[in-house]
UniProtKB/TrEMBL annotation:
<dbReference type="InterPro" id="IPR000551">
    <property type="entry name" value="MerR-type_HTH_dom"/>
</dbReference>
<feature type="domain" description="HTH merR-type">
    <location>
        <begin position="1"/>
        <end position="70"/>
    </location>
</feature>
<dbReference type="InterPro" id="IPR009061">
    <property type="entry name" value="DNA-bd_dom_put_sf"/>
</dbReference>
<dbReference type="Pfam" id="PF13411">
    <property type="entry name" value="MerR_1"/>
</dbReference>
<dbReference type="InterPro" id="IPR047057">
    <property type="entry name" value="MerR_fam"/>
</dbReference>
<dbReference type="GO" id="GO:0003677">
    <property type="term" value="F:DNA binding"/>
</dbReference>
<keyword id="KW-0238">DNA-binding</keyword>
<protein>
    <submittedName>
        <fullName>DNA-binding transcriptional MerR regulator</fullName>
    </submittedName>
</protein>
Amino acid sequence: MITIGRLARYAGVSIKTIRVYHDKGLLPEPDRDSSGYRRYTARHAIELIKIRTLAEAGVPLARIRDLRAASAEDFHEALRHVDADLTARIRGLRETQRRLRRLAAGRLQMLPPEVGDHLERLPGHGFSPRWVALETDLWILLFAAHPDTAIESFHDQAQSLTDPALRRLYLEYDRAHDLDPHDPRVDDLARRIVRATRGRYGSGDLPGQDTGSEIPAMLQGVVNASSPAWRRLDALIRDELFRT
């Protein structure tokens, strides 16, 4: 016969946890002895370890209570489902761990090598450190949210930078960051970007449109928030491109 304190130590839980399990009907309370103390047996310790193991595996307490009353066949079937769920969670945690290690190694390590190489070449094309940092953060977000489609968007942008005329527009967009939003150069740049966009894509859907995702709008929101001139530039471009 053992005390509740010793039972807690055997099972690796707190006395408070044992009392919670009593209250929820998971662990039967033993009778009190002549001194008024509850005395537990090895059977209580075994049951408590089972409950703790299921709880640590993520099984809700209400479900554990049901499993205690289940048949042996149903109990083992439930354990197989718990094991499968736990395996999926472990796989997800390992992927999170890999992303964390890539983050610790540097932001570019979170991206495919070809994207990292592209970003490292941007300063050589004349892009500002601000633009490179912003592009890096946006690609990290896009690849984290939509890894399957992000590479297509990346290839589209990388291809556009091989065209000297389009690259100049990107550079002008970068340098417009510090302009007054009502500077005539903002209006002129918006018109030229619209003309180049229509020339490249025609009347079809533009990249990033109609994906059913809020990520493209979120990304553009990050860009717009960093500069009043960029915010007005985006508004002018959208007003012209999506005018009905």
